[in-house]
Amino acid sequence: MDDAADDGAIKSAAVVLIEEISAGDVGKSVRVTGRCVSTSEHLIIADGPAQLEVIADGSGQVRENDMVQYIGELAREEGEAEGRLVLKARALRNVDGIDLAMYKRAVAMRRKMLGTQH
Amino acid sequence: MHRRSKASSGSRRGVVTAHPPVDWPGYCKLPISLRLCLEKPANGPTGSGSDKSEILEYGRLSTQKETHGRALRITSAHVQGVVVEARPKSSFLLVRIDDGTGIVGCMLWHNPPPVSEGARDLIECGGTVRQKLLGKFVSVRGRLRRNWKNDGEREMNIQEIGILSDPNAETLWMLELCQAAKEIARATAPDGDPPPSSNGDGIVSELKEVTVERGMARLLGPDDEGRGGVGEESMDVVL
Known about the structure:
Shape of chain B: globular
CATH class of the domain at 72-183 in chain B: Mainly Beta
CATH superfamily of the domain at 72-183 in chain B: Nucleic acid-binding proteins
Number of domains of chain A: 1
Strand content of chain B: 25-35%
Helix content of chain A: 10-25%
Mean pLDDT of chain B: 60
Low-confidence stretches of chain A: 1-7
Largest interface: A-B, 39 and 48 residues
Mean pLDDT of chain A: 84
Shape of chain A: globular
Largest sheet of chain B: 5 strands, mixed, barrel
Order of helices and strands of chain B: EEEEEEEEHHEEHHHH
Number of strands of chain B: 10
CATH architecture of the domain at 72-183 in chain B: Beta Barrel
Order of helices and strands of chain A: EEEEEEH
Strand order of the largest sheet of chain A: 2-3-4-6-5
Number of helices of chain B: 6
Helix content of chain B: 10-25%
Structural class of chain B: alpha/beta
Strand order of the largest sheet of chain B: 6-7-8-10-9
Radius of gyration of chain B: 18 Å
Oligomer: heterodimer
Number of strands of chain A: 6
Distance between the termini of chain B: 23 Å
CATH class of chain A: Mainly Beta
């Protein structure tokens, strides 16, 4: 009988805020939410003052001012040993219309319930 | 708002695109990483089960002999999360769902054919199912199983699956889970109130009362400025 175990493992992506991402998070799988502020040269999403560059296939699906969620892995910007972190995305979700403030509070509540940082 | 579900699901559409699905009584809401099991125990609150059965205490795994207090066994679950993988296989459709606390592999078997129209539509998508599902926030109901080829990892056999297009559906889900977790923890605490009946019926019926409407009324009441939201005071009450 087939079952689900014969595929490569996909890591669970912790829900994090862009402002919470730090240099020590390289390699971690995360899910971030933000508004797309730039699609011209680089795809950049922002949550308040915090911004994150996203490397994604099919980034043409996203337009400026779209509220989006990306799931992916954090990596160093290519060519720079101590460069800033970028998100290598593997899934995109359009969340236009989300109440971001309530979403953040729900995330905080869940973290408190689970006793976790993320 | 939300409608209470009917007992029969035979005529209910599986794909919900406009509103979060109705509450499914008898199905325990699970954030994927929390390992809880709920079923009517055969004898007493902790049940006897078979030699291979496991009773999972809130938050951790324990064998039946080591269990103390009142543990709940769950065989059916209702989970919500983002689809991170959707892959048609020879005899089933594999959907991996990530809710931020863990990943669960869910299988939609071709045979017997699913009852819900939406689930059948997903099977008929074939190779295009990945574009249809990847990145979508879905609600899944199904029976839990163990994959003993993969260290007993939990998986689900999908009975119903629905795409939730409302961007705030996940927020509501997280709040509902906090509510459900509080109810379960209270019901199973060793020093808490004893269950109303020895065979666990009281615990099951108590959890069935945690409806979407109740969660919405308690958790999403208006704030001082009349906007919907969860105030700090409300959060303290919930937790």
